[in-house]
Amino acid sequence: IFDTTEPPPTGTVEFVTVGGSLAEGTALDIVVERVGGTRGPIAIDVSTENGTASDADYELVSPADGQLAWADGEDGTRTITVAALADDDVESDETFELQLQSDGDEDSFRSSTITVTDVRPEPGRAVFASDTASVAEGDTLDVTINRIDGSDGELVVPFGTEDGSAGGADY
User: Fold this and answer.
1) Which residue among 45, 51, 57, 82 has its CA within the 20 to 30 Å range from the CA of 23?
2) What is the pLDDT of residues 86-124, one digit of tens each?
3) What is the pTM (predicted TM-score) of this model?
């Protein structure tokens, strides 16, 4: 008696999350999955390739050693985390490739494009610390202005007075 059945396939690793976008200073999880078979262990090298983004714009956070592995008989997902590094440069969106490949197996090569979006620092805005203020005649009044929603660069605040129940001769 001869067993003519084919052994179950090893399977491949595919992107579940294809592509993605992340803002500077944030991280993105990319999910991959072993599909099509679970015979034998499988190890995948995870790497990146610069597009318009350079190594100064992003980093591969996990897997820290650049490898994902599944044991014999194991299927399921794994997560790859990439982070976009914050900088003060004003620039266009940039891309890099996240790549998967089983050791030396060109047929296992997979690639996914990741976009890093620029986050421009905000100058913020000026608001009064209090909605109302009063002062006795002959005294002075200090009005406090707070800067909120950002602190990048100079913030110019034009100001003036407007008559209400008091006229210009009163102040």
Assistant:
1) 45
2) 988 888 999 999 999 987 677 889 999 999 999 877 788
3) 0.69
